[in-house]
Write a structure and sequence with these properties.
alpha+beta; 60s Ribosomal Protein L30, Chain: A; 7 helices; about 15% strand
Length: about 230
C-alpha cells in the first residue's frame, strides 16, 4: 500500500485529500440529477419538497439553510397537504381566520384520508348545551362559507359532543344535540352564506367519535365540536 510521510516523519495511509471529497460531491450531484429526471412528472409541490429535503440532507454549512420571508417564501402548509387537491388555498384561509378572529384555541385543522378536516370547538359557535348558533359566530361562518364558495370540494358538516348526558325539551340526547347543531350550521351556510346545497351534507355523531378521552373538562371541551370535512369531488 502506498505510504506518504507526514511533516513529523511518520507514515500513514493515503486518504486522498481533497480529491476524495470532490469525487464524493460529484457522485452526490450525479444522483441528485438522476432523481430530478426520474421525478420530472411528479407534482411541482412534491418536487419542491424533495429538493429542499435533499439540500438539507447534504448541507455542509453549520446551521443549515434558512427560509426568508416575503412574497417568494415557500408556504410550508402547501407542501404538506397536496396542491393537486386544491387544499393549500383553503388552509391559508383557515390560518388567516385563526388570526383574524383570535381562534387559535378554538379552531384546528388536519389531513385525513377523506381530505381536509376543520375542527371548530363548540365554544366558538354555540352556547353551552344549545343547538342554536350564537350571533357571535356569524362572522366565522360567513368566512367558512366564503371558503366553500371558492372551493370545488364537497363539505360534510359533522356535529360531535362529549359523553355528559343531556336531556332537555329541545335536545333530549347528545344524538339530537350533535345532529341539530350540524343541520343548523348547514342551513346557515345555505341561507346566509349562499353555498350550494349539492355540495353540503350534515351528520350527527353524538359522543361516539371523541378525539380525546372524556376524562377532564379540557378533553371534553375538545370533543364538543363541529367538523367541516372538505373532500375532493368524485
Amino acid at each position: 500500500m502506498a505510504k506518504r510521510k507526514s511533516k513529523g516523519g511518520s507514515s500513514g495511509p493515503d486518504t486522498g485529500g481533497w480529491e476524495g471529497v470532490y469525487s464524493g460531491f460529484i457522485l452526490i450531484m450525479l444522483c441528485f440529477f438522476i432523481m430530478l429526471c426520474s421525478f420530472s412528472k411528479i407534482a411541482p409541490n412534491k418536487m419542491n419538497k424533495f429538493v429542499r429535503s435533499f439540500v438539507a440532507s447534504v448541507d455542509m454549512f453549520q446551521g443549515g439553510f434558512g427560509f426568508q420571508t416575503g412574497d417568494q417564501a415557500s408556504d410550508i402548509q402547501s407542501d404538506d397537504v397536496g396542491l393537486e387537491e386544491g387544499l393549500a388555498p383553503i388552509i391559508r384561509e383557515f390560518v388567516q381566520m385563526q388570526a383574524e378572529f383570535g381562534l387559535q384555541q378554538e379552531m384546528e385543522y388536519s389531513i385525513s384520508t377523506e381530505g381536509l378536516v376543520l375542527q371548530v370547538f363548540d365554544s366558538a359557535l354555540f352556547d353551552s348545551g344549545v343547538a342554536e348558533i350564537s350571533p357571535e359566530a356569524f362572522p366565522v361562518l360567513n368566512r367558512i362559507a366564503h371558503v366553500i364558495l371558492r372551493s370545488t370540494h364537497t363539505v360534510r358538516i359533522e356535529g360531535h359532543t362529549d359523553n355528559l348526558p343531556i336531556h332537555t325539551e329541545k335536545t333530549p340526547s347528545n344524538w339530537d344535540l350533535s345532529t341539530t347543531r350540524a343541520v343548523n350550521v348547514l342551513r346557515y351556510l345555505i341561507d346566509k352564506g349562499k353555498c350550494s346545497p349539492d355540495k353540503l351534507s350534515a351528520a350527527g355523531f353524538g359522543e361516539f367519535q371523541p378525539i380525546f378521552p372524556n376524562d377532564t373538562p379540557e378533553h371534553r371541551a375538545k370533543n364538543r365540536r363541529v367538523e367541516f370535512v372538505f373532500s375532493p369531488e368524485k
